[in-house]
Design goal:
Two copies of one chain form a homodimer. The first copy, chain A, is mainly α and 177 residues long. The first copy, chain A, has two domains: 82 residues, Arc Repressor Mutant, subunit A (Orthogonal Bundle); 81 residues. In chain A, 67% of the residues lie in helices and 7% in strands. Chain A has a two-stranded antiparallel sheet with strand order 1-2. In chain A, a hairpin with a 7-residue loop joins strand 1 and strand 2. The structure holds a DNA duplex (28 and 28 nucleotides).
Chain lengths: 177, 177
DNA sequence: AAGATCATGTAAGAGGTTACATGATTGA
DNA sequence: TCAATCATGTAACCTCTTACATGATCTT
């Protein structure tokens, strides 16, 4: 329901192409929003039809042309309206927990191997987020103040990933006995 | 893709009606799986058609009849196959973070009010999970061993909720300055 | 020469949400 | 008497995933 709003929030900060948005979701905002390129392009099309955003074609030498989208006044208003209303709590569907819950149907090794694989990916996400945090902390006070709210969302990612890893360690220790 | 498997995992533990499953998701397993009753009934229908589960009608005095589903051998096999294969990492789409990211488009009071509302709901979820944990810890060693894997998933809920609340406190303190 | 990156899309199908529908019992 | 709980479903609509499609440049 709100991929639309996630896109608008990013475009409100800076004009981007669909490709840029997808990359941004993947490399930085995975703890926050996930979407496939097909879905992003579709929403960009719909938002353009509704005149919440517009685009200009940028031709590049050496690279394919791209459409750089920016938010319109109508879009900024729509986004403001959405942001002023309460949001629904985050829906959780965690297949790994389903697997663990029914783990007696497979081997302990399989469970531990799967956990180890997920742990690796969470570790690399955390590392990435900590790097972004370091960059933020090196900014001057003005810039830090300017990016305070995005930084707060980054903190959610960091605290969340640390908690996930803490849990995984506990599970590993408990199951290894 | 795996509401199906979430249902099977619960039925593998104990036969239940659709209503029971929904209640179970709502009251205990919200940190792990969420689904609407319509979606649950639909999956039960499909699983029955595939002969992964069967049901018996239970007529009750004072209450409507219900269909009590149980897993079949075919279902147990299908579930085992799924559990032995790697699961995809949990997809996160967190509208509250989108709102916070674009929080400059609304008032600080609105953000803090919204955060406070979410905090309340996370606090009550945590309280509920801690009660379930206490019940588990009062079981004898044999029963504790028997429910070890579901308990590990419960720990994920507890650690996750605590981390969420820790983050919310940090945001409150930072924004209140 | 092969694979990754840049860049954008269409179409079919699966999955999820919202609205509508029914009806008895129980507790405040 | 009003709301909540028990209990199950259909239908329309929206959203997301998977598969298919194209083609240039850059890196190994």
């Amino acid at each position: 329901m709100s991929l639309k709003h996630a896109i608008l929030v990013l475009l409100e900060t800076e004009p981007s192409s669909g490709y840029d948005l997808v990359k941004h979701f993947k490399s930085r905002l995975g703890y926050f929003w996930n979407a496939k390129h097909q879905q992003v392009y579709l929403q960009l099309k719909k938002l353009t039809e509704d005149e919440w955003i517009t685009f200009k074609a940028h031709s590049q030498s050496n690279k394919p042309d791209k459409k750089v989208y920016e938010i319109t006044e109508l879009g900024r208003k729509g986004l403001g309206d959405w942001i002023s209303q309460p949001v629904k709590p985050n829906k959780i569907n965690d297949a790994l927990l389903v697997k663990l819950y029914g783990g007696h149907l497979t081997s302990k090794d399989n469970i531990l191997a799967e956990l180890a694989a997920h742990k690796k990916s969470h570790e690399s996400v955390l590392e990435n987020l900590l790097n972004i945090e370091n960059n933020y902390l090196e900014l001057n006070k003005d810039k830090q103040a300017h990016y305070l709210l995005p930084y707060m969302t980054l903190r959610r990612g960091i605290i969340g990933e640390k908690a996930w890893l803490e849990w995984a360690d506990e599970v590993e220790k408990t199951l290894s006995i």
